[in-house]
Write a structure and sequence with these properties.
The complex is a heterodimer of chains A (319) and B (303). By secondary structure, chain A is mainly α. Chain A is built from 15 helices and six strands. Chain A has two domains: 11-116, Orthogonal Bundle (Arc Repressor Mutant, subunit A); 127-287, no CATH class. The longest helix of chain A is centred in the middle third of the chain and has 20 residues, at 136-155. Residues 1-9, 84-91 and 290-296 of chain B have low confidence and may be disordered. In chain B, helix 2 (40-57) runs parallel beside helix 7. Chain B is globular and about 65 Å long. Chain B contains eight helices and twelve strands. Chain B has two domains: 20-234, von Willebrand factor, type A domain (Rossmann fold, 3-Layer(aba) Sandwich); 247-299, no CATH class. In chain B, strand 9 (260-261) and strand 10 (268-269) form a beta hairpin. Classes of the chains: A mainly alpha (319), B alpha/beta (303). The interface between A and B is large, with 49 and 38 residues. Chain B: This is General transcription and DNA repair factor IIH subunit TFB4. Chain B: Pfam families: Tfb4 (PF03850).
């Protein structure tokens, strides 16, 4: 079961369902353009490259001439995806002939990215200030530890142990669908809940991210801003320290939540404080791509998780 | 460049179908570039943008560039090597530009020096056989890193004419590529077609193209040569109208379309010899001039 593909695709569906103006605004950020590009099926990526420097609409017929009989379904999937994400704009002329061209904002920014490269809005801090930076191995252990804590709280039926800083209402949002939430009954793991536990870390993370973003408007946060920040975060360098004062207030609040998921680590120096992206954060953009179904390599954490949840479950659920 | 940065193992589910290793062979022959219609600097800007676009479309894609000089070849860029400055994303612009250009300059200077010392036998041609061999060796190493690796292919950006003295070496490289299932794409930017590259692309299943408008080079590169191997099953890519299969004779390295062939080892000669210089088989007497061409070809050696 290609779990990462389904979950990540659902995330892109969510991006695609943003209102047109918001989506167009997202494309002002070159890293978003790159993340979106990487999430597309291979044919769609190629179409973007070949349309990158073409300013006039190209007829659908002309594009179909390049496609062999075997490839028509893939061609349609690629075109549909490009239109859904507003990367391609579709026009019909008087003769009802369909043409495509690249979204101008997307096009300009990707051209710039290609020639000049992307510049992150923040630079890593100099190493003389960030003295106690964890090693990459320690950072990875930290990230997975944080994630496991979160998972434990997620599937825990009792709210007595507060392992993370998420509010109980936020946890209830995450638990929706994974645990039954009936009055007067202790929460139990649903079928989807079991499946969730067996997914690999990246797929679980995307699931949680999707819930976190879908719920953002209720918390007074613009989902487009959140998506933008998350994708931008995935292009930072794992293990490097970035100053907290380069973040907006909204981003700072988001960072606190991301600590609980193991995406970043916070540290404080004498005068400055900084955040360090972990592999969980920087892998986000990699796992966005449409992967083919291959044999699942179950992450080692899942076995630990499975055995520890089995322990927890046995304490709580066995009649 | 003696480094060999083995890529950190990636969970197989993150490995999509289009992950590519692109090895680009860049013709730097100054004799060619001094008379080319497209200036070298403009050419480079198209190529650099193209290389960056390959790295852009998939985080796991890898690009390697080998410079093909008159007298030497060498690696001038590898996107998988650890960057000196971790601030700049691995192998990306502007790091890509500055690293590559610096190594390129060092290479061209070094190659030029060799010209003064060595009397280049084929003035005007570049060492395509050398860079093809280097590319194939690099790819072999990648194959041996394990079952999970990007799909490799070679792209020759060639402007210099074919050097017939390299015929045997080039054909050996082509067959080696064919056996390893590594397609050789050819983008010919010189004035004439390249028989070597036509054969290379034909035999290995790559694409051969001689762009008609060089100032639109990026467009040809992005439309045709950026296509990953998986997607090629679904797309109609340019096919050459005809392939020049002419060989070079082993004795003088001249291109011939009619000649003598040793039936033991298939070495090719433009005129009659007493014995084969490759395998030592002794040939029979030459027939008189009145005979037809086909009779000449049917000469068999006596062991």
């Amino acid at each position: 079961m290609p779990q990462v593909k389904i979950i990540a695709k659902n995330f892109m569906d969510m991006v695609a369902s943003l209102p047109a103006m918001k989506l167009d605004a997202l494309y002002h950020n070159t890293f978003i353009c790159e993340a979106i590009l990487r999430s597309l099926p291979p044919l769609a990526k190629k179409y973007i490259l070949q349309m990158l420097y073409i300013d006039v609409p190209v007829t659908a017929k002309a594009m179909e001439e390049w496609v062999l009989a075997d490839g028509f379904s893939k061609h349609r999937v690629a075109i549909d995806r490009l239109i859904q994400l507003r990367v391609f704009t579709e026009t019909s002329d008087r003769k009802k002939e369909t043409s495509y061209r690249l979204n101008p904002t997307f096009q300009t920014n990707l051209q710039k990215h290609l020639i000049y490269g992307g510049v992150l809005p923040r630079e890593p801090m100099p190493s003389n200030i960030t003295v106690r930076l964890p090693s990459l191995d320690d950072l990875e252990a930290y990230a997975l530890g944080q994630w496991e804590c979160f998972l434990l709280q997620l599937i825990s039926s009792t709210q007595t142990e507060k392992l993370t800083n998420f509010s109980s209402s936020m946890m209830k949002v995450f638990q929706r669908g994974l645990l039954t939430q009936r009055e007067k009954e202790a929460p139990r793991l649903t079928e989807s809940g079991f499946q969730f536990l067996l997914m690999d870390t990246n797929a679980q993370l995307w699931y949680i991210m999707r819930e976190y973003i879908s719920n953002s408007e209720e918390r007074g946060v613009d989902p487009a801003d959140l998506i933008s920040f998350l994708l931008e975060l995935s292009f930072h360098v794992t293990g490097e320290a970035y100053n907290i004062n380069t973040l907006t207030e909204f981003q700072r609040n988001t960072i606190k939540d991301l600590v609980d998921l193991g995406l970043v680590k916070l540290q404080q120096g004498r005068k400055e404080s900084w955040f360090i992206p972990t592999k969980l954060a920087t892998n986000l953009s990699m796992s966005l791509s449409d992967t083919s179904s291959r044999k699942q390599v179950v992450h080692k954490t899942n076995y630990l998780m499975h055995s520890s949840t089995a322990h927890v479950l046995s304490n709580h659920y066995i009649a | 460049m003696g480094r060999s940065a083995v890529m950190a193992p990636v969970p197989s589910k993150l490995y999509s179908d289009d992950v590519s290793l692109l090895v680009v062979l860049l013709d730097t022959n100054p004799f060619f570039w001094s008379t080319a219609s497209l200036p070298f600097s403009k050419f480079l800007s198209h190529v650099l943008a193209f290389l960056n676009s390959i790295l852009l479309i998939n985080q796991l894609n890898q690009v390697v560039v080998i410079a093909t000089g008159c007298n030497s070849c060498n690696f001038i860029f590898d996107s998988s090597s650890v960057p000196a400055n971790p601030n700049l994303e691995n192998g990306r612009m502007p790091a890509l530009c500055s690293n590559l250009l610096q190594k390129l300059e060092e290479f061209v200077t070094g190659d030029e020096k060799l010209s003064k010392e060595v009397l280049a036998a084929g003035i005007g041609s570049s060492l395509l056989s050398g860079s093809l061999s280097m590319a194939l060796c690099y790819i072999q190493r990648v194959f041996r890193t394990g079952p999970l690796h990007p799909q490799p292919r070679i792209l020759c950006l060639q402007g210099s004419p074919d050097g017939p003295e390299q015929y045997v070496a080039v054909m050996n490289a082509i067959f080696s590529a064919q056996r390893s299932m590594v397609p050789i794409d050819s983008c010919v930017i010189g004035a004439q077609h390249s028989a070597f590259l036509q054969q290379a692309s034909y035999i290995t299943g790559g694409v051969y193209l001689k762009p008609q408008q060089l100032d639109g080079l990026f467009q040809y590169l992005s439309t045709v040569f950026a296509t990953d191997l998986h997607s090629r099953r679904f797309l109609q890519l340019p096919k050459p109208a005809g392939v020049d299969f002419r060989a070079s004779c082993f004795c003088h390295k001249n291109t011939i379309d009619m000649g003598y062939i040793c039936s033991v080892c298939l070495s090719i000669f433009c005129k009659h010899h007493k014995k084969c210089s490759t395998c030592g088989s002794v040939f029979g007497q030459a027939q008189s001039d009145g005979n037809s061409a086909t009779d000449r070809k049917r000469k068999t050696p006596e062991t």
